[in-house]
Design goal:
alpha+beta, Cytochrome Bc1 Complex, Chain A, domain 1, 2 domains, 6-stranded mixed sheet, 16 helices, 11 strands, 19% strand, hydrolase
């Protein structure tokens, strides 16, 4: 009887949020190739204006790493009609806030304004695209800003370099082997002409997706968008061709050293398929099963019960072209790194030979339903998701339908994907160690 009640409750949960969380949107292309997505939400008198450019760290030239992230900073320097240092003042003085971020695959800029400032947001983003001021003075200024960011977030932050060490060893050809922030020597060596060429190539309307979300009138928003973005010339078509990686067929071993840590860590990393695949979503579920919350498999076994680890878990770092799946542990006391890996491998082996329990499976489904609800709970989150699904997945409606993919995943698929990708001969073992004195 109890099981029947739980099943009914879960079914009602799914049915309720399937209806309540549907995101309505319109999308179309301007003549210059810019993709436009509009979402009306009158719950609050705010509007998000955002642009996602399909350019990230993987698009950089060898020897010029960090360029995409650098532009995230550089394009706040000013434009033909917005003076140097005035961008943030203009936003805050009109009751707004703004930010930007860069990954290996894309760069995203956005403003959040009171809804009566929609035109201001559109004008500012059109200025960034059409009239950026890229001069040596701005390059020099932002070079120091990026260096300070690297010092704070990477060089002096404990455990901040684990992904860098994993990527540089697990990718041999693909540019994912680098870091988003790049190497400072590369930025120092870059010429002004190279910065101008990067902007000309990637910051064009046909490589951009504009999302306007919030308390808007659709018809008037379309008119303003055409007025501000329509006249911007189309850029040259961008061809992307990245080298394919050979399969990993035997265990690779590597070490990475970090002067900011005292406790070592062990990582088992696997190269996995694109985030656009169903297998990548299954790996998301496996990560949650292994490491989400104190009742998760690895935490309960290694941290709570056996007290072998301070931390243990799994990360599915999925990206547009490949994914990197990482199992990790930080030892407690005298526990050896090899012993942590043996315990983790034991749990993976159980997943590969036995179906997870119905109870664990239902818990996963509930977690992903909750994640879905939370991701669409703010207009800011909706705007980001709309842009991301169009740019990186090529399907904007995944904002509504991706949850159905997770719902369709079975216990048998979880077992099959664990068997397919999480094997000792398909991985990198990285010892992440305190720097030698």
């Amino acid at each position: 009887m109890k099981k029947s009640i739980l099943t009914l409750a879960s079914a009602l949960f799914v049915a309720f949020y399937s209806n309540a969380q549907k995101v309505d949107f319109q999308e179309y292309d301007l003549d210059n190739g810019m993709h436009v997505i509009l979402h009306k939400d009158t719950a609050a008198p705010v509007v998000v204006t955002s642009v996602m450019y399909h350019v990230g760290a993987k698009d950089e030239q060898p020897g010029r790493t960090g360029m995409a992230h650098f532009f995230e900073h550089l394009l706040f320097e000013g434009t033909k009609n917005i003076g140097k240092g005035e961008w943030f003042k203009l936003v805050s003085s009109n009751g707004g806030k703004n930010n930007a971020n860069t990954t290996d695959d894309r760069t995203y800029y956005y403003e959040i304004f009171p809804s009566n400032k929609l035109e201001l947001g559109l004008w500012m983003e059109s200025e960034r695209l059409l009239h950026p001021i890229i001069g040596q003075d701005g390059v020099d200024t932002q070079n120091e800003v990026v260096k300070e960011e690297k010092r704070l977030r990477v060089d002096n932050q404990p455990y901040s370099r684990f992904l860098e060490f994993v990527k540089e060893n697990i990718f041999k050809k693909h540019p994912y082997k680098g870091t988003t922030i790049g190497k400072m020597a590369d930025l120092d060596a870059a010429t002004l002409e190279e910065f101008l060429a990067f902007n000309k190539k990637f910051y064009v309307p046909n490589n951009a997706t504009l999302v306007v979300a919030g308390d808007i009138d659709i018809a008037s928003a379309k008119i303003m968008i055409e007025d501000y973005f329509g006249p911007i010339p189309r850029g040259a078509e961008i061809e992307k061709s990245f080298p394919q990686e050979e399969p990993i067929t035997e265990t690779m071993n590597a070490k990475g050293y970090d002067p900011n840590i005292q406790i070592p860590a062990i990582m088992a990393a696997y190269r996995t398929p694109s985030m656009k695949t169903k297998d990548s979503r299954v790996l998301d579920m496996i990560s949650s099963y292994l490491s989400t919350g104190k009742s998760s498999v690895l935490y309960k076994k290694l941290v709570d019960t056996k007290k072998m680890a301070i931390q243990a878990g799994a990360i599915n770092a999925s990206q547009e072209d490949y994914g990197t799946y990482i199992l990790y542990g930080l030892p407690q006391g005298e526990t050896k790194l090899d012993d942590l890996i043996k315990e983790i491998d034991e749990e993976i082996g159980i997943m590969q030979t036995e179906l997870i329990s119905e109870r664990s499976y239902q818990k996963l489904q509930n977690q992903f339903e909750n994640n879905y609800v939370n991701s669409n709970s703010s207009v800011e989150g909706v705007a980001n998701s709309l842009a991301r699904y169009h740019v990186l997945y090529g399907d904007t409606n995944l904002i509504n339908s991706e949850i159905d993919i997770y719902r369709s995943i079975t216990r048998e698929e979880i077992q099959a994907v664990a068997k397919k990708y999480l094997n000792p001969n398909q991985r990198l073992i990285l010892e992440y160690l305190p720097e030698k004195k």
